[in-house]
What does this fold into?
Amino acid sequence: MPTITLDNGSSIEAPQGKRLVLALEDGGVDMLHRCGGYAKCTTCRVSFSSGEPNEMTAAERDRLAEGGLYGQVRLSCQILCDHDMQLATINHLNGSAYDSAGTRPQDKITPEPQWTTRR
It folds into this structure.
Protein backbone atom coordinates (compact mmCIF):
# COMPACT_ATOMS: atom_id res chain seq x y z
CA MET A 1 0.00 0.00 0.00
CA PRO A 2 1.34 3.44 -0.91
CA THR A 3 2.27 5.78 1.94
CA ILE A 4 1.19 9.41 1.72
CA THR A 5 3.38 11.58 3.96
CA LEU A 6 2.12 15.05 4.79
CA ASP A 7 4.23 18.14 5.38
CA ASN A 8 3.47 17.93 9.12
CA GLY A 9 5.18 14.52 9.25
CA SER A 10 2.03 12.43 9.58
CA SER A 11 1.37 9.64 7.11
CA ILE A 12 -1.53 7.71 5.65
CA GLU A 13 -1.54 4.24 4.16
CA ALA A 14 -3.65 4.38 1.00
CA PRO A 15 -5.15 1.43 -0.84
CA GLN A 16 -3.57 0.89 -4.25
CA GLY A 17 -5.47 2.82 -6.92
CA LYS A 18 -7.54 4.98 -4.54
CA ARG A 19 -8.06 8.62 -5.51
CA LEU A 20 -5.65 10.79 -3.55
CA VAL A 21 -8.42 13.20 -2.50
CA LEU A 22 -10.33 10.30 -0.92
CA ALA A 23 -7.25 8.83 0.75
CA LEU A 24 -6.55 12.21 2.33
CA GLU A 25 -10.16 12.81 3.40
CA ASP A 26 -10.56 9.27 4.75
CA GLY A 27 -7.25 9.73 6.58
CA GLY A 28 -8.71 12.68 8.46
CA VAL A 29 -6.91 15.42 6.54
CA ASP A 30 -8.64 18.82 6.63
CA MET A 31 -8.93 19.84 3.00
CA LEU A 32 -11.42 21.18 0.48
CA HIS A 33 -12.86 19.56 -2.66
CA ARG A 34 -15.70 21.94 -3.46
CA CYS A 35 -16.58 20.67 -6.97
CA GLY A 36 -16.85 17.06 -5.83
CA GLY A 37 -13.75 15.85 -7.66
CA TYR A 38 -14.41 16.98 -11.24
CA ALA A 39 -11.23 19.07 -11.80
CA LYS A 40 -13.29 22.26 -11.95
CA CYS A 41 -12.60 24.27 -8.78
CA THR A 42 -8.93 23.57 -7.85
CA THR A 43 -9.70 23.63 -4.11
CA CYS A 44 -8.16 20.15 -3.67
CA ARG A 45 -4.70 21.42 -4.67
CA VAL A 46 -1.60 19.77 -3.27
CA SER A 47 2.08 20.55 -3.66
CA PHE A 48 4.61 17.72 -3.81
CA SER A 49 7.92 17.46 -1.98
CA SER A 50 8.59 14.09 -3.58
CA GLY A 51 6.79 11.38 -5.49
CA GLU A 52 4.83 13.63 -7.84
CA PRO A 53 3.17 11.42 -10.45
CA ASN A 54 4.46 11.71 -14.02
CA GLU A 55 1.00 11.25 -15.50
CA MET A 56 -1.97 13.57 -15.21
CA THR A 57 -5.42 13.72 -16.66
CA ALA A 58 -6.17 16.09 -19.51
CA ALA A 59 -8.86 17.66 -17.28
CA GLU A 60 -6.25 18.43 -14.60
CA ARG A 61 -3.75 19.77 -17.12
CA ASP A 62 -6.31 22.02 -18.77
CA ARG A 63 -7.75 23.36 -15.51
CA LEU A 64 -4.34 24.13 -14.03
CA ALA A 65 -3.19 25.81 -17.24
CA GLU A 66 -6.39 27.86 -17.37
CA GLY A 67 -5.84 29.09 -13.80
CA GLY A 68 -2.12 29.78 -14.26
CA LEU A 69 -1.26 27.00 -11.81
CA TYR A 70 0.31 24.45 -14.17
CA GLY A 71 3.69 23.30 -12.89
CA GLN A 72 3.08 24.71 -9.40
CA VAL A 73 0.46 22.41 -7.88
CA ARG A 74 -1.59 19.32 -8.65
CA LEU A 75 -5.25 18.40 -8.14
CA SER A 76 -5.65 15.54 -5.66
CA CYS A 77 -8.98 14.60 -7.24
CA GLN A 78 -7.16 13.61 -10.44
CA ILE A 79 -4.37 11.51 -8.88
CA LEU A 80 -4.39 7.79 -8.08
CA CYS A 81 -2.41 6.40 -5.16
CA ASP A 82 -0.02 3.95 -6.80
CA HIS A 83 3.29 4.87 -5.13
CA ASP A 84 4.64 6.71 -2.08
CA MET A 85 4.18 10.49 -2.10
CA GLN A 86 5.16 13.39 0.14
CA LEU A 87 2.95 16.47 -0.13
CA ALA A 88 1.20 19.43 1.44
CA THR A 89 -2.49 20.20 1.18
CA ILE A 90 -3.25 23.83 0.38
CA ASN A 91 -6.92 24.67 0.99
CA HIS A 92 -8.49 23.69 4.29
CA LEU A 93 -12.04 23.70 5.59
CA ASN A 94 -10.88 25.02 8.95
CA GLY A 95 -10.62 28.79 8.58
CA SER A 96 -12.51 28.88 5.28
CA ALA A 97 -15.88 30.49 4.61
CA TYR A 98 -17.42 27.07 3.84
CA ASP A 99 -19.53 24.87 6.12
CA SER A 100 -18.35 21.65 4.42
CA ALA A 101 -15.39 20.42 2.40
CA GLY A 102 -17.68 19.76 -0.56
CA THR A 103 -19.55 16.80 -2.01
CA ARG A 104 -17.62 13.57 -1.53
CA PRO A 105 -15.89 12.66 -4.81
CA GLN A 106 -16.79 9.40 -6.52
CA ASP A 107 -14.47 6.41 -6.14
CA LYS A 108 -13.36 6.63 -9.79
CA ILE A 109 -11.73 9.68 -11.34
CA THR A 110 -14.21 12.07 -12.89
CA PRO A 111 -14.54 13.09 -15.61
CA GLU A 112 -13.45 9.89 -17.37
CA PRO A 113 -9.66 10.26 -17.38
CA GLN A 114 -7.65 10.83 -20.53
CA TRP A 115 -4.09 10.27 -19.32
CA THR A 116 -1.19 12.37 -20.50
CA THR A 117 2.43 12.82 -19.44
CA ARG A 118 3.36 15.94 -17.51
CA ARG A 119 5.38 18.36 -19.63
Summary: The domain at 3-91 is CATH 3.10.20.30 (Ubiquitin-like (UB roll)). DSSP finds two helices and seven strands in the chain. Strands lie at 3-6, 11-13, 45-50, 55-57, 74-75, 85-89, 115-117.
